[in-house]
Amino acid sequence: MLPLTRGSDEHVIRRPVHHRRGALRPALAARVQRAVLGIACWLLLAAVVPRAQAEDGYDLWLRYRPLDAAQAQTGRSHVAQLVAPAATPTQRAARDELRRGLRGLLGADPGTADAVDRAGALVVGTPASSAAIARLGLDLDGLGDEGFVIRSVEVDGRAATVIAANSDIGTLYGAFRFLRMLQTRQPLAALDLRDAPALDLRLLDHWDNLDRHVERGYAGQSIWDWHKLPDWRDPRYTDYARANASLGINGTVLNNVNASAQSLTPMYLEKAAALAGVFRPYGIRVYLSARFSAPREIGGLDTADPLDPRVRRWWRDKADEIYRLIPDFGGFLVKANSEGQPGPQDYGRTHADGANMLADAVAPHGGVVMWRAFVYSHEEPEDRAKQAYSEFVPLDGQFRENVMVQVKNGAIDFQPREPFHPLFGAMPDTPLMMEFQITKEYLGFATHLVYLGTLFEEVLEADTYQQGKGSTVAKVIDGSLHGHGLTGMAGVANIGSDRNWSGSIFDQANWYAFGRLAWDPHASARAIAGDWARMTFSNDDGFVGPVVDMMMGSRQAAVDYMTPLGLHHLMGEGHHYGPAPWVEGGPRADWTSVYYHRATPEGIGFDRSSGGSDAVAQYADPVARVFDDPKQVPEDLLLWFHHVPWDWRMRSGRTLWDELVHRYSRGVAYVRGMRETWSGLAPYVDAERHAEVAAFLAIQEQEAQWWRDASIAYFRTFSQRPLPEGEAPPPESLEHYRSLSFPFAPGN
Ligand code: BDP
Q1: What is the CATH number of the domain that holds 170?
Q2: Together in a domain, 309 and 166
Q3: Ligand 1 atom nearest to 413, measured from its CA
Q4: What is the number of domains present in the chain?
Q5: CB-CB contact of 332 with 289 (8 Å)
Q6: What is the whole-number distance in angstroms between the Cα of residue 610 and the centre of ligand 1?
Q7: Residue 379 maps to which CATH number?
Q8: pLDDT tens column, 257-303
Q9: For residue 377, what pLDDT is reported?
Q10: Active site residues
Q11: Which reaction does it catalyse (predicted)?
């Protein structure tokens, strides 16, 4: 038998070798020598090139990895000691987070002290909790309960930094901000920062069922382990609260909007109360989705009519019961008379009647009702995009003070791109709350890298012109346009039981961006992406620049390869995975793709102009005029508002057909570019996270290609035109794409 080649000796069957103790045989000695040399070289390399340790993403953006030596030195000189009270749970949360963060970032625990006795102290507290802060007499007016200041000051003649607020929660938010400054390498000298959230309610909506299935969830099961609650409180709940508090998120709706009445039974309320107890120190209130027919399903009544005194009494009693268990319960979120859910219209009542009944039940306890405007009725033959506006505008001014109408960013349904919802600005007497979707139901699930910060920003910056120029959506929801005191933003959560929380590392950025924009809807998506990339991966400019650029273009890329030029709702039926522009038939037209794209041999697009469904009329001038004119409408929305001939001349000079194909290919090319960019960034990222992102980008490229090919194969049966020069034809037949089926696609 031939000897095995050198270097593959792991395949050699080893026999025990007998030799004198202490004396190595020459060959073995040489091997040991080589090994020692190898290890020495490796150690030397490891010292010079800091290799990131394997990470699974659990730590999110709160990784607190060591700063480099010089930065750590500067950091230590500003945090020579920590003077922070620890008398309440929230104070302890702030102090513990600072210690955890400082230990990680600076490599040293500054320890805690009761009073400042050296230069470079970090002093945390409120005028009530800290004598030092009380003596400073800082101006904390206008910060409310959640704002804070971070300032470089002198305490008893010694240089110090203070994190001060009117309440413990404000100091917790300030603590997280200070840590972010360290994490993102901000200067720590001469600080004078003052910040407070622009919106009152900054909420995650979990579409989580009691059996732990997450509707439209792509990150595993629900993190709420209902079966083991209330006795087992998974430590993960605390990390959830920390992550949210680090962004200023202050509420969580625990259960799906397609709600089970069981959530309101004593057993489940006790479980919700246990979660509320974990979240409370972090300033996070618990809310519940309420099933409108609960009085019938669990209350023994034969009606859920909101004007029936027995029903009203049942909800009042239910609210009292909830508040006995959860004194700071936030309130109810309601999906009513939408997609088969029960609601007041079942009894001939209006959305206002339903919302007000619940509002009256929670009002004595300070609760709110978030009533969703995502409605489109079964009977209504009207363009679905118009229905919410038609139903809700006439109700403006009829809601109680503690009701907010929660409006999705667009009028159809969380599509890759939609024009802003026409309700924004159109209900001046009702506080409107924004609903974004963080989970990527229509944007490639967990494997597509699509940064939603730009989608959120685009909507928030959109000008409704409802009160003249500058009436942006952000000003509608921050209350400043119509002078509302109650304001809010909700995001449909992308959180699940996966170790990395969101199903992918880059989906964490969407949770992050949502939280930051809920705190400040005027913030910049690019700046937020930069902070996230620094905190999540690396502060190296060689990394941050390319990653942020890649993120910033990623949403447009998804629009391009899925639904370019204003196309929408062409995803796989039910699960919404992959392309299916051919979907037709079934129970209702507006659940099909053909309803939305309306392709014919003449042209393509949904005519919502004044000559069509006239959805444009729901916008204020001049928005309505611009949208109504196919020559003026932004081309990204062309087919949303217009049915246009295939030879329509685009601004690029191409025909519509050629432009459509060009956009599909452009989207795929962008993903290919992201793969290249990412592969060049390996030196900055630990191997584990780098490999996962790379693998997901490969999936994304395949699926982007699939979207392009299937869409082109389908639409060319209408356009009857050749592909533009240089464009590859779809490799498979249309029948092939149509035959693909995914009965077990997640989230459905
Ligand atoms: C749609 C989802 C569906 C939700 C619905 C909603 O497909 O699962 O229940 O939105 O927001 O996008 O109520």
Answers
A1: 3.30.379.10
A2: no
A3: 12
A4: 3
A5: yes
A6: 29
A7: 3.20.20.80
A8: 999 999 999 999 999 999 999 999 999 999 999 999 999 999 999 99
A9: 72
A10: 339, 413, 441
A11: Hydrolysis of (1->2)-alpha-D-(4-O-methyl)glucuronosyl links in the main chain of hardwood xylans
Q: Do 245 and 133 reside in the same domain of the chain?
A: no
Same domain, 598 and 471: no
Q: Are residues 417 and 479 in the same domain?
A: yes
Which of 418, 441, 571, 577 is the best mutation target for the ligand 1 pocket, counting ligand atoms within 8 Å of the beta carbon and taking the most?
Answer: 441
Residues 266 and 212 in one domain: yes
- What is the helix (H) or strand (E) element at residue 669, kind and residue range? helix 656-680
The string of pLDDT tens digits covering residues 445-501 is: 999 999 999 999 999 999 999 999 999 999 999 999 999 999 999 999 999 999 999
Residue 411 to residues 193, 446, 617, 679, 721, Cα–Cα distance (Å): 38, 24, 14, 38, 32
Q: Which of 164, 195, 226 represents a domain boundary (last residue)?
A: 195
Segments forming the whole domain that contains residue 225: 201-536
Residues with Cβ within 6 A of ligand 1? 215-216, 257-258, 335, 339, 374, 413-414, 441
Q: Which of 177, 182, 187 is nearest to 67 (CA)?
A: 182
Assess if residue 50 is contained within a domain: no
Sheet holding 192-195: strands in order across?
A: 81-83, 121-125, 158-164, 148-155, 192-195
Is the distance from CB of 420 to CB of 436 less than 8 angstroms? no
Last residue of a domain, one of 195, 217, 234: 195
Ligand 1 center from residue 384 Cα (angstroms): 14
Point out the ligand 1 atom lying closest to the alpha carbon of residue 414.
12
User: What is the pTM (predicted TM-score) of this model?
Assistant: 0.93
For tokens 């792509």, what's the residue? 218
Local mean pLDDT, 10-residue blocks, the chain (748 residues): 31 32 42 49 41 82 96 95 97 98 94 93 98 97 98 96 98 98 96 98 98 98 98 98 99 98 98 98 98 98 98 98 98 96 97 98 98 85 92 98 98 98 98 98 98 99 98 98 98 98 98 99 98 98 98 98 98 97 93 97 98 98 98 98 98 98 98 98 97 98 98 98 98 98 97
53 lies in some domain: no
624: in domain = no
594-618 pLDDT, tens digit per residue, is: 999 999 999 999 999 999 999 999 9
Beta-strand runs (E) in 53-97 = 81-83
